[in-house]
């Protein structure tokens, strides 16, 4: 499965990641603004903790892939 993120493009998910994202605690993040009430002053600052967490997943996955590749070469 993949999810389209406006910043990172397509984020490919494993079955384990999908089951975590589908869980109720993770889905609750959709209703929490990442920057609190800042979106009243800065309308572009309207992303949620859910979207932020997906971006963190993507970045962590990339870091892991790079480290795994470097470890193979050593």
Describe, in plain words, how this protein is organized in 3D:
The protein has one domain (2-73). It has a two-stranded antiparallel sheet. The protein is mostly helical. It has helices at 15-21, 24-27, 49-73; strands spanning 2-5, 9-12.
Topology:
Layout: E1 2-5, E2 9-12, H1 15-21, H2 24-27, H3 49-73
Number of domains: 1
Q: Strand order across the biggest sheet?
A: 1-2
Percentage of residues in DSSP E strands: 5-15%
User: What does the largest sheet look like?
Assistant: 2 strands, antiparallel
* Low-pLDDT windows of residues: none
What percent of residues adopt helix (DSSP H or I)? 40-55%
Q: Roughly how many Å is the radius of gyration? A: 15 Å
H-E order: EEHHH
Mean pLDDT: 93
Q: How many DSSP helices?
A: 3
Decide which structural class fits the backbone: mainly alpha
Shape call:
globular
- How far apart lie the N and C ends? 32 Å
Give a count of the beta strands, DSSP E runs of length 2 or more: 2
Task: Please give a quick description of this structure.
This protein has 74 residues and is mainly alpha-helical.
């Amino acid at each position: 499965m993949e999810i389209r993120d406006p910043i990172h493009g397509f984020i490919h998910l494993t079955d384990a990641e999908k089951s975590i994202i589908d869980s109720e605690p993770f889905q609750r993040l959709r209703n929490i603004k990442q920057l609190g009430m800042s979106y009243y002053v800065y309308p572009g600052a309207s992303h949620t903790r859910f979207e932020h967490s997906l971006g963190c997943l993507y970045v962590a996955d990339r870091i892991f892939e790079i480290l795994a590749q470097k470890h193979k070469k050593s």
